Amino acid sequence: MNVYRKLRRFVAKQLGYLAAKMEPFSSQDDLSKFKGYYSDAVEDASTIRLTRNGHTITLRKASSDLMVFEQLFIYKEYSELVDLIRLNKISIRTVIDLGANIGLATIYLRENFPDATFICAEPDERNFESLQANLSGYDKTVLYQKAIWSTQKNIYLNRNFRDGKDWAISVSNNKSGSYAEVNTMTIDEIILHNNLDEIDLIKIDIEGAEAELFKGSEQNDFLDKVKVIAIEIHNEFNVRDSIISQLINHNFLLVESKQTLVAISASCIQNSMNHVTNNQSVI
């Protein structure tokens, strides 16, 4: 059996272990469901505010914020991602959040990896203001109001993707129908500005702009520096096969987890397998 098949079998065992731990969740209407989990939440005409671990989170009612919160903290979109990182004993010291929205994914990951530095990029001005407010009590955070692209340029924001709400703002070269213009930055620029030798975890949810990040080998050199990737691939842009192919070519092992494709460097899985073998234990 080749090494890659061994790695896949090893991760399959881990996923089976995680599935046995998952607790079912019964659906209710949005607000009552939310209050069932956060009875101390404070509500006014336009926002809902709650406290997690001593930090205030503000959610805008007239937006997609509540749905994002439910996705992350109630339905636990990234729970398998976190568990796989822990099971494979991957050290997380640097996290890049591309498409940070109002900071909820960063907060969730920060609660699980409290010693990490978080670098967040979000292009929309209103979302960015909420991002700043929600992360204001955290240290070791770097925030950019930028769109992520393959080159440095000006680009346009629009609301014509999916439901058009704040979690679906997309970017385009086309000014027609846009509502704002914003500067872009590349992942290489983030690496340079923050003096990064490696990226432990990068979360990518950029509403189709992942097509720009993976459009050619010149754009994906950053993959050699990454241990774990969590990416939502938007099928409307027909780039899933290309992205998967590039990740495999860079020796990532791929796992579908809810809406997220998790890619773990094979070297990290190999280290975990060696640890299990050396300690003669199984999951």
Overview of the structural elements:
Residues 97-235 form the Methyltransferase FkbM domain. It is a single chain. With 283 residues, this protein is α/β, with parallel strands linked by helices. The chain has one domain: Vaccinia Virus protein VP39 (Rossmann fold). It is 35% helix and 24% strand. The protein contains ten helices and 14 strands. The protein has helices at 3-21, 30-37, 65-74, 79-87, 104-112, 125-134, 187-193, 210-213, 240-249, 266-279; strands spanning 42-43, 47-52, 55-60, 94-98, 117-121, 141-144, 147-148, 154-158, 170-172, 180-185, 199-204, 226-231, 252-257, 260-265. It has a seven-stranded mixed beta sheet, with helices on both faces. Strands 7-10-8-9 form a four-stranded mixed beta sheet. Helix 5 links the parallel strand 4 and strand 5 (117-121). Helix 1 packs across helix 4 (79-87). The longest helix is centred in the N-terminal third of the chain and has 19 residues, at 3-21. The two termini are 20 Å apart.
Order of helices and strands: HHEEEHHEHEHEEEEEHEHEHEEH
* Beta-strand content bin: 15-25%
- Helix percent reads 25-40%
- CATH fold-level assignment: Rossmann fold
Fold topology:
Elements: H1 3-21, H2 30-37, E1 42-43, E2 47-52, E3 55-60, H3 65-74, H4 79-87, E4 94-98, H5 104-112, E5 117-121, H6 125-134, E6 141-144, E7 147-148, E8 154-158, E9 170-172, E10 180-185, H7 187-193, E11 199-204, H8 210-213, E12 226-231, H9 240-249, E13 252-257, E14 260-265, H10 266-279
Parallel strand pairs: 4-5, 4-11, 5-6, 7-10, 11-12
Antiparallel strand pairs: 1-2, 2-3, 8-9, 8-10, 12-14, 13-14
Helix pairs in contact: 1-4, 1-10, 2-3
